[in-house]
Amino acid sequence: MLKLIPATDRHHAAPVHWLSSHFLFSFADYYDPKNIHFGPLRVFNDDVIQGKSGFPQHPHSEMEIVTLVLEGELCHADTMGNKSTIKKGEVQRMTAGTGLAHSEQNDKEDAAHIYQLWFLPNQKGLAPSYEQKDIDFLDSKNELVPLVSGQKVLEDVVYMNSNSTVYWCNLAADKTVTFKTFPIRNTFLYVKEGSLYINGVDVGPNDQIRSTDENVLEIRASKDAQFILIDLPASEANY
């Protein structure tokens, strides 16, 4: 079954002048008991952070936090002693584990556009850790590029403690990619731009597809498109 969630159903939040967020799941002041998580995917925030601003230091625990930078860059600092700049096309994973605090600042004049995803970990009590990699995913063509995964068999990806894999795809008009899955797995897809035709369903910019009990997704671009696809266990237990 494919469930289409249109862009207009996203929750928009602008709690401060420098931040514009679209929440795809319950988060902060947005609460919908029917939209808490999708398997272990607990948070998906589509954020635009204005220049010379950002999130001051704040705590996290028992969560795998993935950040993709789509435009601009973000400066990261945490209580583990890490200090880095996450640039366009780079991917960061932070295992909050037993607890840490971090800050995220946009020190440039131009806005930064990021996706931030939170996954329930496959085990609790992990030591906090951090990984960052330049995967240059925004320049890929007509293929699903793995960015973050709990599958150690995949190379050149950021590892996370969740039985999930995050892919990116830049798909040219009239090109098709096929994603094979299983009824015990879920697939989440979010379109950044362009339009897609997925198993008979038209999907436009900022629309979501939440797929359950499918064996294969045939994804064709009606217009040049960019999208993120996440392969997930069907339950938050992360098996």
TrEMBL record:
What InterPro entries does this protein map onto?
Pirin, Pirin_N_dom, Quercetinase_C, RmlC-like_jellyroll, RmlC_Cupin_sf
Which SUPFAM superfamilies did the record assign? RmlC-like cupins
UniProt feature coiled coil, ranges: none
Transmembrane region(s): none
Domain (Pirin N-terminal) spans 16-118
Q: Which residues form the Quercetin 2,3-dioxygenase C-terminal cupin domain?
A: 155-232
Q: Which Gene3D superfamilies match?
A: Jelly Rolls (2.60.120.10)
UniProt cross-references to CDD domains, sorted A to Z: cupin_Yhhw_N
**Of which family is this protein a member?**
Belongs to the pirin family.
| Record's protein name | Pirin family protein
Q: What is the lineage of its organism?
A: Bacteria, Pseudomonadati, Bacteroidota, Cytophagia, Cytophagales
